Amino acid sequence: MLASALLFSVLDGLIKLMGPAFRTWDIAFYRFGFGLVILIGILGWRGNPFKVHNLKLMLIRGLTGTVTFLLLVIAIRMIPISTAMVLFFSFPAFAALFSFLLFGEHISTGQIGCVLGALLGAAILFEYQVSDSLWGQAAGLTSGIFAGLTVCLIKKLRETNGAPVIYLYFCLLGAAITFPAFISNPQLPRFGIDWLMTGGIVFTALSAQLLMNQGFKYCKSWEGGLILTSEVVFTSLLGIMFLGEIFSWRFGFGSLLIVGSAVFSNFAGDGTICYVKKAVRKRLRHI
């Protein structure tokens, strides 16, 4: 999950740096189209790469994931990336809500506090202020809502499906949805830097998504979403290292809240560490 968050932060930066000639549809189609081709090439030799359990839920996940990405790209390109990321990272709270509503997952008071702590850390980290771009703000917040729903569906699908096939259907739905708008006025990379950035978007998106899907095999949807919130920390680090941004108390305190909430969530309720403790006690009793 942490490796996925790091790669997603690189993806965010590349989206922000892509030239204005590249539309949202162009960026999305390059991600989905090339990702689809790569995955079919990797999985195709084993047989039918589209064989899945619960096809209906897989298609719904592909749809919600595509909407999430399109809205996030719109937000990143319309408003400051910090504001877009703060709005997007409301999704752990929505993941907890959808987990309870759709799948009846238990969430304790302490775990709710961890989610709120992570969101507070993100707000402190970026000193969130209301932007003049209402559409960009709306896109950022709505992407967080859809992301919360998406991670719940991934968690459910991960019980019976592998990480690659989940991303394969995501790319399939995404490519099908974005292709008509892309082909109407395609923007192709012209220079070496354009090709490099396009390739970077495809690689980081593919790697990050596979790692995220794999991670949901071992944690609850809201727990995984909470750990992915560390993406805002990585984004800030990249800004300090490569964009000359200055380290501030907001970065330190906000990062502490985010990472601390992710760690403490394992001690609250029935998190991963609590499962480990129970397993150890059971083993000791047998000994």
Question: In a nutshell, what does this entry contain?
Answer:
By secondary structure, the chain is mainly α. It has 13 helices and no strands.
Give the low-confidence spans: 271-276
Class derived from helix and strand content: mainly alpha
Mean pLDDT: 81
Describe the sheet with the most strands: none
Question: Could you describe the 3D structure shown?
Answer:
There is one protein chain. With 287 residues, the protein is mostly helical. The chain has one domain. The protein contains 13 helices and no strands. Helix 3 runs antiparallel to helix 4 (81-88) and helix 6 runs antiparallel to helix 12 (249-264). The longest helix has 24 residues, at 55-78. The chain is globular and about 45 Å long.
Strands, helices and their partners?
Blueprint: H1 2-17, H2 24-43, H3 55-78, H4 81-88, H5 91-103, H6 109-126, H7 134-157, H8 163-184, H9 192-215, H10 221-228, H11 231-242, H12 249-264, H13 272-286
